[in-house]
Amino acid sequence: MSDASGPRKQINSFDVARLAGVSRSAVSRTFTDGASVSKETRDKVMEAARRLGYRVNVLARSLHKQKSDLVGVVAADLDNPFRAEQIDLLTQGLLELGFRPILLRGEPSADVADLIGSLLQYSVAGVIVTSDTPPEEICQECLQNGVPLVVVNKRDPGAPVDRVVTDFEAGGRMALEHLLDCGCTRLAVVTPERSSYSINGRALAFEQAANAKGVSVIRIAWGTQSYEGGLAAAGFVHRVRSEIDGIFCTADYLALGVLDGLRHVHGLKVPRDIQVIGYDDIPQASWKAYDLTTVAQSRRDLCEATLDLLIQRLEEPETPPQIRTCGVTLVQRGTTLGS
Question: Which InterPro entries does this one have (predicted)?
Answer without folding.
Answer: HTH_LacI, LacI/GalR-like_sensor, Lambda_DNA-bd_dom_sf, Peripla_BP_I
